[in-house]
Design brief:
Layout (H helix, E strand, L loop, with lengths): L1 H17 L32 E12 L4 H9 L4 E3 L2 E14 L2 E19 L2 E14 L2 E12 L4 E11 L26 E12 L2 E10 L8 E2 L3 E14 L2 E14 L3 E2 L2 E2 L5 E14 L3 E15 L6 E12 L1
Antiparallel strand pairs: 1-3, 1-17, 2-4, 3-4, 4-5, 4-6, 6-7, 7-8, 8-9, 9-11, 10-13, 11-12, 12-15, 13-14, 15-16, 16-17
Length: 322
């Protein structure tokens, strides 16, 4: 039975890797009768033999540095870059191998708008690089639910996965020069992930939390983009339970990142911690179609050195389970 269950997953994974035209993970979902989060990873899993397919769009708006500010940073000896926004369009899938074990995967198409920078050794010039776009890295994530207490309505799951270097790492700017790895759609690195999630339910309310740690390895152009810790907590309320079910969601989504290293040298203007407060809404149609929208506003910023702040970020998606 296990071999029959894993075969579709392996076939789908191979299709993703073989097709460059195929552009966050579909979660197990809380199901038709239960509320659930958007960005936070729930401990719930898909039932054995069930699929979830989804498309997601994420837009991140940044407080871009002006040319004057870039030149000022360069005069102070800082190598600083800035860009206007980041857009991800992702395709994802999830499959229930057993009732307690689920595998999900996602691959994005990445677009970064209007990259420019100034260097401390050239304090009188702003370098304009233009836009970059392309297929990003494939992420595969497993959920193993090792605790399920029905009477207490509590679940917990182990998270484990791998970011596979399937993305573009040789994109060039408007001057014909190769973008630095941090601006490439792909990283060129194999990055393992490990984490844990927990879910507690109270009738129409769900409380979810998760930690997910990504261990960055050296990728393209001898660049280590830095380890990443995602920490999330979400409160979800099933406000409507009719033909269309509606969840009102409030999440706190945090991201801590190490400084990146290029050929072993740390970039002092990289890494740090940000926490977003993210209200959202999720609608469920016909028990298997789901759409969601979330807007994240930064409430804590503790970034290293000189970096562009995030103004806001939004995520919208559609999932179907069958």
């Amino acid at each position: 039975m296990f071999r029959k269950g894993i075969a579709p997953v392996v076939m789908f994974f191979l299709l993703l890797m073989a097709n460059d035209a195929f552009a966050h993970h579909p979660s197990g979902g809380a199901g038709a009768g239960l509320a659930g989060p958007i960005r936070t990873i729930s401990a719930s899993t898909l039932k054995e033999g069930k699929w979830s397919l989804g498309i997601q769009a994420e837009f991140i708006k940044l407080d871009t540095f002006s040319d004057r500010k870039l030149l000022g940073f360069a005069e102070d000896g800082h190598d600083v870059h800035t860009f206007d926004s980041v857009f991800h369009a992702s395709l994802g899938a999830g499959y229930g191998i057993t009732d307690d074990l689920m595998l999900s995967m996602r691959i994005p198409y990445v677009f970064i708008d209007d990259i420019k920078e100034a260097h401390g050794d050239e304090p009188d010039e702003v370098h304009r690089h233009g836009d970059v776009k392309g297929i990003g890295d494939l992420t595969v994530l497993g959920h193993y639910r090792f605790v399920k207490i029905d009477d207490a309505k509590f679940e917990s799951a182990l998270l484990f996965g791998l970011k596979v270097p399937a993305g573009n790492t040789h994109r060039k700017d408007i001057n014909g020069e190769r973008f630095e790895t941090e601006h490439q759609p792909g990283s060129g690195s194999w990055d393992p992930m490990v984490g844990i999630s927990a879910t507690k339910r109270f009738d129409n309310i769900s409380l979810d939390a998760n930690l997910l740690y990504t261990i960055a390895t050296k990728g393209a152009q001898k660049t280590d983009l830095g380890d990443l810790l995602n920490y999330n907590i979400a409160l979800s309320y099933r406000a409507l339970r009719e033909k269309i079910s509606l969840d009102l969601i409030l999440e706190a989504n945090g991201e801590w990142k190490q400084k990146q290293k290029i050929d072993g040298v740390k970039d002092k203007n990289s890494g740090g911690n940000e926490l977003f407060l993210s209200p959202g809404v999720r609608a469920l149609f016909n028990k298997n179609w789901m759409t969601y929208l979330s807007v994240g506003i930064p409430v804590i910023r503790d970034l290293n050195g000189v970096q562009t702040d995030t103004r806001f970020r939004t995520v919208f998606g559609i999932n179907i389970a069958f």
